[in-house]
Design a protein that fits this description.
Blueprint: H1 7-14, E1 18-22, E2 26-30, E3 40-44, H2 56-76, E4 81-85, E5 101-106, H3 128-138
Antiparallel strand pairs: 1-2, 2-3, 3-5, 4-5
GO molecular function: catalytic activity
Protein name: HIT domain-containing protein
Active site: 100 (tele-amp-histidine intermediate)
Length: 139
């Protein structure tokens, strides 16, 4: 998808989002349908589809903003925790093809769950951890 077609790129270009933070590498804004009060999206300021094509420095800047935002949620919103959610690629349920992180403030007994309730039905032949170790060592 070209940047001109990306809803997040359009928001940044037009400046129409409800901004929480704007930086050269990453920015943060409130989603249209928040899961909780203070739920915020963090996105790279340039278009990258997902974790697979985002340069390490941009990913680091995005995660730094995620951490700053989580700390702000703890102090400004009295959140006792946060969920950081992201999806990349066709099998992940990624809804907008621009890398983004949902930072959702949480409170004890807040009534929501962001954790899967059942494991994947997908099966692999062999040891997944060994396959990952091999890929990391030869990648």
């Amino acid at each position: 998808m070209a940047c001109m077609d990306c809803v997040f790129c359009r928001l940044m270009r037009e400046g129409t989002a409800r901004w929480v933070a704007r930086g050269a590498e990453a920015c943060a804004f409130a989603p249209l349908n928040p899961l909780a009060p203070g739920h915020t999206l963090v996105v790279p300021s340039r278009h990258y589809t997902g974790v697979f094509d985002t340069p390490p420095g941009v990913l680091a800047a995005s995660m730094s903003l995620v951490q700053d935002l989580a700390l702000a949620m703890r102090t400004a919103l009295d959140a006792s925790g946060v969920n950081i959610l992201s999806a990349s690629g066709p099998g992940s349920e990624q809804s907008v093809p621009h890398l983004h992180f949902h930072v959702v403030p949480r409170w004890v007994d807040d009534g929501i769950s962001t954790w899967p309730t059942s494991p994947s039905r997908h099966h692999l032949i062999g040891d997944p951890s060994a396959k990952l170790t091999e890929a990391l060592n030869h990648g």
